[in-house]
Amino acid sequence: MNAALRRICLSLVCLVTFAHAAHATQWIEPTPEELKMTSAPEAPGATAIYLNREEITDDHLHYWRTYVRLKVLTEGGKDYANVEVGQYNSYDNGSYKIEDIAGRTIHPDGTIIPFTGKPYEKLIQKGRDYKYTAKVFTLPSVEVGSIIEYTYDMRYDDSTYFPARWIIQSDLFTRHAHYEWLPTSRELISKDEKGEVITSGISWSPILPKGVELTNVEIPSTRNEGPERRFELKIDNVPPLADEEYMPPIRSLGYRVAFYYTAYTSRDNFWKDGGKRWSKSRDHFIGPGSKVRAAVNELVQPGDTEDQKLRKIYAAVLKLENTVYTRQRSRSEEHADGLGEVKNTDDVWERKRGTDDQLAELFVAMARAAGFKAYVMGVTNRDKSLFLPSYLSLDQLNDDVAIVNVGGKDQFFDPGQPFCPFGDLAWKHTMTQGLRQTENGAEIATTPAASYKQSRTDRVAALALDDHGIATGTVTLTFLGSPALQWRQRYLLGDAESLNHEFENTLQQMMPGGMEIKVKAMQNVDDYEKPLIVNFDVKGAIASSAGKRVLVPADIFVSSAKPTFSHEKREQAVYFPYASTTLDLVRVTFPAGYTIESAPPSESIPYKYKDKATGHDMTSAAYELKTEQTPNSVLIRRTVLMGDILFTTDQYPGLYSFFSKFEARDHEPTVLKPAAQTASN
């Protein structure tokens, strides 16, 4: 979505500069129990725990102060001595600075080693037109049993305000935590793309354990102004976030409080009135303008069907450069080319490039120019988070998708995602919520789910086994839907050589160890309407001896696989990226003189649960294994269907049992024995 809507810049009606107030660090003296501690009964096996955490945000002084006391319990806990305190984009001027860093290390015998170093820049991520770095400092002389203690300020520009966001639950147990925010008492304004002004108040969305309350009180002003507000939270014994397989997006989990500036006091008013403003702003950018209309007149013919028109428009948009996968030009580069700010979809078409959201908006503009009713929908990327209607902020809308009414029915498109097939959505945009345009404004809506039939991976192996247990042959991987899209987008971020290497590494992780794997050919990498096919040549040992018998993995694609779920109990729901089908077809031809003693029997295993609404038994996943034998070969056909992506903790015991059963079957081998032994028997 447009950056101006994602990040509302709040500035003072009249700016006042407050003098910097230096603060003296107040350390907490450790107790004898804390010094002697070697483990934490509240968190068995923990590498470290937080003894104290504190965050104080003061809008009047424009700083966010962090204070931490942490007990190191194991060697792994020593990593917390390396403190990362902020990320910067080197191409931005930066809106905050890290100041007043202080720290110390306390050994179990009470010896104190103060921090006297300086922070340094650490490279986090680098791209063609950006480089993210972080401020990092390291506490001295940290050992198992040490207490590390540090504080720092993040100081913001005097004309900019950011509402507090308290992330209360982390990867470590926390004994005591304190959060405080002193928001400015001055009136704040925000400006959207058309310069319209909204007087902003403060609201918040809390997710807290039962019995923990956020306090919001008025306090006397010390600045000759009206009453000030203070938000405060004190909480003890906060458990760590669960670390489980296939969890929902971590940003959507855990105790937290998100504050935000808003002119609205109710959810309905925000999404109704704010939605109208959002939709109006999007229409201002979309148009369509004269250049888009002219382009559409050249693309489509009067005799084209609706489907033909949309396909031509979709293909034209996907041919444009998506700068999310290449690079965004700087203002100086655009200026050197005689180009100004991108103000509408005419500018996007003229440049023949744009961000993912700009391309989605261009597709909507072109569809409108072709006579369709077309709309933008801002959605939450469910790879990152989940949409919360109670959180009254447009910041939740990460990405744009397009909706076009065809024959009286809305169809969804994802032109901002390179290689996404016509009429499909990238998996991260399926079954998610957001705000969509309507004829009269906007409303909260949900994108459609994708069937397990749409995302499919076929893995086919034809192998010949020699007398030494060495298999030689070919493997073909075929990807459709979401798996194909993910691989193709990786290709955009690299090149053919790097993609080959990734494919070989991926297959290497599936197959028995030590096999030689080489990509032979790739097909349809650039053709998003066809399956992506990768052919490999493979060679290596796959068989093992057990006396005179030879054990051969029934399905070599899962021979090295670990259990999907490692625990019988679970705290969070299971959340798969997308519904899917996986089909394995493995034929192993064995040498003369051997015959099959046993092979895994054919079997079907369903996953069923009782629908609470109807009381009916429902099947949302299934496993099937079929075995076919000839005198000198065995063919294994294995199919796994996952029809749902979300399984609640109530459903988990059945899901765990389902995976445990079929994964046990996966590791049953085909057993060969010499033909002479068969004859003597």
Polypeptide structure, described:
By secondary structure, the protein is an alpha+beta fold. The chain has three domains: 3-263, Immunoglobulin-like (Sandwich); 268-446, Roll (C8orf32 fold), CATH 3.10.620.30; 456-680, Jelly Rolls. It contains twelve helices and 37 strands. The strands form eight sheets. It has an eight-stranded mixed beta sheet with strand order 6-5-9-3-2-11-15-14, with no helix packed on it. Strand 24 and strand 25 form a beta hairpin. Helix 4 (290-299) packs across helix 8 (356-369), helix 5 packs antiparallel against helix 8 and helix 7 packs across helix 8 (356-369). The longest helix is centred in the middle third of the chain and has 20 residues, at 267-286. It is globular, with a radius of gyration of 30 Å. The model is unreliable at 1-24 and 88-93 (pLDDT under 50).
Secondary structure layout:
Blueprint (H helix, E strand, L loop, with lengths): L2 H4 L3 E3 L19 H5 L11 E11 L4 E10 L9 E8 L6 E11 L5 E3 L5 E7 L4 E8 L8 E10 L8 E3 L6 E9 L5 E4 L5 E11 L7 E5 L8 E11 L17 E7 L4 H20 L3 H10 L6 H13 L2 E2 L8 H6 L8 H7 L1 E2 L1 H14 L3 E7 L19 E8 L2 E5 L19 E6 L2 E6 L9 E10 L4 E11 L1 H12 L2 H15 L5 E8 L8 E10 L2 E3 L2 E4 L21 E2 L4 E10 L4 E5 L4 E8 L6 E14 L2 E10 L3 E2 L4 H15 L3 E5 H6 L1
Parallel strand pairs: 2-11, 17-18, 24-31
Antiparallel strand pairs: 1-12, 2-3, 3-9, 4-8, 5-6, 5-9, 7-8, 10-16, 11-15, 12-13, 13-16, 14-15, 19-20, 19-22, 20-21, 22-23, 24-25, 25-27, 26-27, 28-29, 29-37, 30-36, 31-35, 32-37, 33-34, 34-35
In summary, what is this structure?
By secondary structure, this protein is α+β, with helices and mostly antiparallel strands. 19% of the residues lie in helices and 38% in strands.
